[in-house]
Each structure stands twice: as structure tokens, then as C-alpha cells.
DNA sequence: CTGTTAGCGCGTTCAC
DNA sequence: GTGAACGCGCTAACAG
């Protein structure tokens, strides 16, 4: 089977490669008539330009990368939908990479991305990442980056986040208002910006309501969820006075719910739980889990838009283009924009 | 800033481009000494080969495509994890495309993929797809394809599925054994192989237990979930004798749960629900939702393995390489391999 | 062991 | 309006 490329098209039409190329790009300097001829044959033979040859020549790949911890998490799943949507509309392709929250893997991925494979990168950093040289180095090789959700404050570029501090504050206030005396806070990693902000909201809300800060009530989870269940269980057994839990991530909220059931603690009479989550089924739980829900799909879309704008203009993306979207609190009796 | 490519490396080292290229590929025909020199400089300058130039030359992109309906569904999210894992281990990149179950979009995506961008494709067809010319045409341009979950029987290649018929049968038997008299079946599209197989399992199980087939009990859902809720509600109101629901997909199971609550039907006393789902939180519902869970992560891994094996060997992938994995039934009191 | 040469398919000069 | 020629960065065949 003969390959269908510019050369073969040109031969079949008795034209030069250059003319065919121009015709397909709708160049002004080619007669309408030949344009038609070329297009007709191209359509008939199902011609598709070789993406790599084109990328090589134009030094532009029409591809963006997405680096996230994992996708088996409703937030990222929804975000990808938004990203793909925007990318597709602009004719971009989407490469996906998972770090599994592993620093080494993140570095290796970023390293590979320096081969000109992508025109821009959307990223949510791994929870273990503390050194950002690899990210800066990618940026230095002219690959624009936009962070979303788990941002990296040390790198100067646009970031799309939610109002983590405010929602952490409000989540805590929600529990205080519901009468909780001892509110535990569960987070996954405290070198993650989102974790820090939510924690700070928690701390400030407690202080604002005259509670003294009890470090024992703050539990940092680990990667393995089975272990987290154990840790939460220990905490609740050691401190039976805990009557409120604010979970900073979905998994910990679900695990808390689970542990409370195991221990026979009645929700919400004995203990109240509120957690960040994008799980639709959370509202089906009985009692429903009170959640802080991030607009994941919109975050993906906005991040992609900012990135593509920067890519097309070939201009550096500035921190001033950052966006903060609002989370929503879905409670048993209330739904509120945070 | 001077570009760091083979040429610049060669100049700096007083070597030819070819030698540098060979050295970096650890070719046998280059002295250990020069290899060292080359590698040292490459590492220092952070050289990364241009992926597109390489792909163009070798006619090989080290990239696979994944085309799925959407990712905001636990099954596909988990499958992607498996795919990415296998791909990464073999040095492959993963391009992702979402069809949103839209035929036109699927055709357009497949069309674009013919530009040599990918070495192979993993695919779960859109529920609206009835014509497979676009898929066959891609296959004709030498792009190996492996289907997973939502396969396309008309195309000759390997398929990775779960035992849909058997689990549909068992799910139905589960409800029969639990004493249900009128069992409704909810499915999303009956031109999808998985839907058909699950439905057939349902029908055969009913027949085996001497039940007469009542077409009114079979409800075909639509794309919009809000509408599905309405449809399910109507069905349950029209047929209050329904005391069992077997939902073929996650969303319909969740929606059923929702509607039953709205209508004040008590689960599982009045009505029992069983559904295909990969939602971990399903077990937290009270009462827990009985689910048939597909090994999504493994399906992704196996499909990717078969595809990459074919890609590396540059040989056509045969239907005989297909795999059928087993789903698991998670019930209130039992957990069983189907 | 190393260098020279010739493309991969495409887009862009520069001629005519 | 069209064609010839060059080069993007890299790999592979052929010399020496």
C-alpha cells in the first residue's frame, strides 16, 4: 500500500509538493481551482498530515501534557474532562502522566517532557515533592506551565486553585456551629499548599471561636489507605472526646466514615464529619456526608484555557493570570458557596 | 540560548553527529571512552533528544492512544491507571481522548489518529456507535487496536472484557434468591456488547427460574442523568410491584438508589438493588449497595500489555489474544467471584 | 571505531 | 500562481 503523503498527492495531481502543502493550508497564493482539486483527492484518499514531521518543522506539537498524582480520585477525573474539552476545541492533544505522588517518578516524567514533546504543561504536584529544580528546568526550556489544585508556590507562573483557606475556615465553623467541642483535622501532607491552607483555615477558625489548639487532634495520613484507617481508629480510641472531624481529602473523609461505623459511633449524633470530596454518592450516604466540593471540571477548563492562551501567544505565563475558584459546601440542610 | 541537540553536542566534543547519536544509544561500535565523554556532556547540558525528529525517522512514536467515553466514571479512571502504569514501564507515552459517547466525535478523533501520532490504540467504543468503518480504516493504516470493556465485535482484534453474561446472570439470580418477584433491568444502550450480554444474562436467569419475561421491566437509560432519574421514577410509580432492580451501569444504580429514597421505598425491605459499579463508597451506603465490580485496573493493564506486545512485534493482534476477566459480587453478606 | 551521506514528511524560503 | 531547494533533528546505510 503506497503511503498517502504530500509527495504521493503531488504526483497523482501533477503538482509540486509545495503547492499541495499550500493548498491544504488554504494559502492565499494558490488558485481556488487547484485548491479544490487537491482537497478532493486528499479527502478521497483520507490524507492525514504526519503529525511528527509537521511538529518537527514548525517546532510546535499541538500537544499539552497533564501531570497529576493519580486519576482514581474524583477530583482529577473531572479535571481531566475539563482539560480534554478545552484542548480538543483548540485542536490540541493531551498526554497524561501519573506520578502516584512519587517524587522520583515526577522528576523522571518532567525530564522526559523536555524533548519538545509538549507545547505546555498542566500540573498538580506530588505530595512528596519538596525540590522544584526539575519543574523550573522545564520552564527554562520554554515549556509554559500552569499549576492547578496542588500548586507549587516556588515557581513563578499562573495557578488555578480553590479558596482552600476560606473553605477550611468555613468547614471548621460549620462543625463549631453544629456544637462540636473537639474537632479533629485529617490531612494528607503538610508540604502541599492546599493542605497547608486548609489547615490554616481550621486553626484560625478554632482560634476565632476561642478554642485552644490541641496538636493531638491533627492527624497526618499516609499513602496507604489501609494504614490510614488504622491511624484514624487509633486516634478516635485514644481521644473518645472527639465529636467532629474535618477531613482535608476525599479518601480520609470516606475512611473516617468507615471507622466511625466500625466503632459504633453514631453520625451525626455522636460525631460529625465534613470532608473535601467530589463524590456524588456522598449525598446518598445515610446520613449524608457533608462535603466541600471543588469545581473540578471548571478548574480543569480554566487551567487549560490559561495554558493554551500562553502557548498560542508564545509569551510567558504570569502569576497574575492565576485564578481562584470557589468551592461549595453541601450539607444536610444547606448548600453554600464558600 | 543555543539549542542543545546532537549537532551542538557534536561540535562541542569535536565529534560527528552520528557518533554522538550512537554513543547515546549505547551502540556497540563506539569506544567506551567517547561514550563517557558524550554522556558526561549530555548530562551536564541536560540533553533530551527531540522526540518528534526521532519518531519521524524511525516511524515509531512510542506513544499509544486511549479513546474512551469519559473519565468521570470510576471504571475508566481505574483503567487509565492500569494503562499508564504498563505504558510507563515500557517507555510509552499515553494520549487520551474522550468521545462523550458521541459518534461524530469518535470518528473525528480516530481520523486525527491516522497521522502517525500513535503506535497503537486502546479503545472503549461510544454507546452510539453503530458503524465501524472509521475504526477499520485506522486498523488498515497499520495501527493495532485492542478493545477493552466496550468492545466492537465487528472488528477483528483482541478484546479485554469481563464475564458480562455470567455476572448479569448471577446478579439476577442473587435477586431471585433474595425473594424478588418483579426484577427490573436498567441498561444504557443495547447496541453495546456489554449491555447486550448483561441483558442476556438477566433474561436467561429469569427463564431458568421459571419467570415470564416482562418487557416493561426493561428500561433503557439516556445520556442525561437527570432524565434517567425521571424515567426510573416513572417506572417505579407505574409498576409499584417492582421489588428488585438490576442496574447495568454505575450511574443507573446510584440513580435508582436515589429514586427509591425519594419515593420512600425501603431498601432492602421493599426493594433490592444490585448494580455494576466500581465505587468504593458503595459499601458505605446504608444499607450498602450490592455491586458487581469489574477489575478495572487489571483490565487496563492487560489491555495495554496485549497492545504493547503487538506493537513491539509489529505483528497484527489476533482475536485469539483476547482475555476475559472476572467480576466480583460484593453483597451485604457475601463476596463472590462471578 | 568514526565520519560522510542520505533521507523521514513537512513548511518555508526564493526563484520564475 | 507554481516549482525547486533547503533544513527541522535524528537515525541508518555505507565508507574507511
From TrEMBL, chains A, B:
Alphabetically ordered keywords of this record: DNA-binding, Transcription, Transcription regulation
SUPFAM superfamilies xrefs: lambda repressor-like DNA-binding domains (SSF47413), Periplasmic binding protein-like I (SSF53822)
Residues covered by the HTH lacI-type domain: 4-58
Transmembrane segments annotated in the record for this chain: none
Gene3D superfamilies membership: 3.40.50.2300, lambda repressor-like DNA-binding domains
Pfam families the UniProt entry points to: LacI, Peripla_BP_1
Domain of life: Bacteria
GO molecular function annotations of the record: DNA-binding transcription factor activity; transcription cis-regulatory region binding
Protein's name according to its UniProt entry: Transcriptional regulator, LacI family
Organism: Hymenobacter arizonensis
Amino acid at each position: 500500500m503506497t503511503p498517502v503523503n504530500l509527495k504521493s498527492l503531488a504526483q497523482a495531481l501533477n503538482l509540486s509538493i509545495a503547492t499541495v502543502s499550500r493548498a491544504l493550508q488554504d494559502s492565499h497564493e494558490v488558485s481556488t481551482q487547484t485548491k479544490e482539486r487537491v482537497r478532493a483527492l486528499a479527502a478521497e484518499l483520507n490524507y492525514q498530515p504526519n503529525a511528527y514531521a509537521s511538529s518537527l518543522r514548525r517546532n510546535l506539537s499541538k500537544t499539552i501534557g497533564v501531570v497529576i498524582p493519580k486519576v482514581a480520585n474524583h477530583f482529577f477525573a473531572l479535571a481531566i474532562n475539563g482539560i480534554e474539552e478545552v484542548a480538543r476545541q483548540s485542536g490540541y492533544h493531551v498526554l497524561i502522566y501519573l506520578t502516584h505522588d512519587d517524587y522520583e517518578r515526577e522528576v523522571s516524567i518532567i525530564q522526559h517532557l523536555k524533548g519538545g514533546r509538549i507545547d505546555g504543561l498542566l500540573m498538580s504536584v506530588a505530595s512528596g515533592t519538596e525540590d522544584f529544580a526539575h519543574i523550573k528546568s522545564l520552564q527554562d526550556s520554554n515549556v509554559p506551565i500552569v499549576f492547578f489544585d496542588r500548586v507549587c508556590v516556588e515557581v513563578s507562573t499562573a495557578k488555578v486553585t480553590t479558596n482552600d483557606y476560606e473553605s477550611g475556615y468555613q468547614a471548621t465553623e460549620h462543625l463549631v456551629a453544629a456544637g462540636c467541642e473537639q474537632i479533629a483535622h485529617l490531612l494528607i501532607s503538610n508540604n502541599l499548599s492546599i493542605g497547608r491552607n486548609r489547615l490554616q483555615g481550621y486553626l484560625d477558625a478554632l482560634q476565632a471561636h476561642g478554642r485552644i489548639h490541641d496538636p493531638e487532634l491533627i492527624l497526618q495520613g499516609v499513602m496507604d489507605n489501609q494504614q490510614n484507617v488504622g491511624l484514624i481508629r487509633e486516634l478516635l480510641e485514644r481521644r473518645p472526646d472527639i465529636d467532629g472531624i474535618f477531613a482535608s481529602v476525599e479518601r480520609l473523609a470516606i475512611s473516617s466514615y468507615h471507622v466511625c461505623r466500625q466503632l459504633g459511633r453514631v453520625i451525626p449524633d455522636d460525631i460529625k464529619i465534613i470532608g473535601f470530596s467530589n463524590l456524588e454518592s456522598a449525598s446518598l450516604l445515610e446520613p449524608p456526608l457533608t462535603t466541600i466540593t471543588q469545581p473540578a471540571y471548571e478548574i480543569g477548563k480554566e487551567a487549560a484555557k490559561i495554558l493554551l492562551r500562553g502557548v498560542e501567544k508564545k509569551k510567558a505565563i504570569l502569576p497574575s493570570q492565576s485564578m481562584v475558584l470557589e468551592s461549595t459546601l453541601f450539607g444536610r440542610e444547606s448548600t453554600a458557596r464558600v
